[in-house]
Amino acid sequence: MSKTLSRKELSLIGREGERIKNGLANLVDDFPNHAKTITGMSKWLAANKSTCQRMVETINKAVDGLEVIHSLPGPSGLKGFIDLAQEKSINPKLIDDARAVVQRFENLIYEYSRSHSALKKLIQESSSSTTEKTGSKRDARAALYEAAKAVTGESMDSSFFACIIKENDQDSKFLQQFTLSYYEGCRASENSRPVMVPVVPGENT
């Protein structure tokens, strides 16, 4: 197993996390309203309060699949939670679906790591590594921009260009171009090139 996860692997784990969250959220959604809070759920199911807290917070607060993996209880705790829900005459299909996503969760853990806690650590380290690489690329682009600015004597913070090309109303052998150009933070030295308005090539066939 590699020391860190690739961006593709992190994305795959994130998608699995979303599926797992959805399956568990559908189960909890079938609970009575008073059993959808941490305390209410713990009392209604006679379940461990910590497990219920992690379930409620994951369903309501996790912003992406990787956070789901990090905040959920482990597969063993989830299986016990589902067993307790089954005793409350919850829709059998929702029970089956929840068991299926927990199995996916367990498979995911052992595909990439040796335990839930080890997978969480691996995701955290890999995410940090990916962020550092992205930052390095951004720094490289910034350095290239500054180098080009020094050589050409010109720079621009941002630009926008849009155009519409249509057949000339007076002569169908010609085209008309309507252009909208916007430049922000445009700076130029005495010997730099003039700002040119782009022209889109086209043929009237």
Strand content: 5-15%
User: What general outline do the C-alpha atoms trace?
Assistant: elongated
Q: What is the count of structural domains?
A: 2
Q: Which spans have pLDDT < 50 for at least 5 consecutive residues?
A: none
Estimated structural class: mainly alpha
Number of strands: 4
- Round the mean pLDDT to the nearest integer and report it: 85
How do the strands of the widest beta sheet line up side by side? 1-4
Series of H and E elements: HHHHHHHEEEE
Count of runs of 4 or more consecutive helical residues: 7
Distance between the termini: 58 Å
What's the helical proportion of residues? 55-70%
Largest sheet: 2 strands, antiparallel
Instruction: Round the Cα radius of gyration to an integer and report it.
Output: 28 Å
Summary of the model, kept short:
The protein is mainly alpha-helical and 205 residues long. The protein is built from 7 helices and 4 strands.
Explain what this protein looks like in three dimensions.
The structure is a single chain. The protein has 205 residues and is mainly α. 59% of the residues lie in helices and 12% in strands. The chain contains 7 helices and 4 strands. It has helices at 7-29, 38-45, 49-61, 65-71, 75-86, 92-112, 116-152; strands at 154-155, 158-167, 175-184, 187-188. The chain has a two-stranded antiparallel sheet. Strands 2-3 form a two-stranded antiparallel ribbon. Helix 1 (7-29) packs across helix 4, helix 1 packs antiparallel against helix 6 (92-112) and helix 5 runs antiparallel to helix 6 (92-112). The N and C termini lie far apart (58 Å).
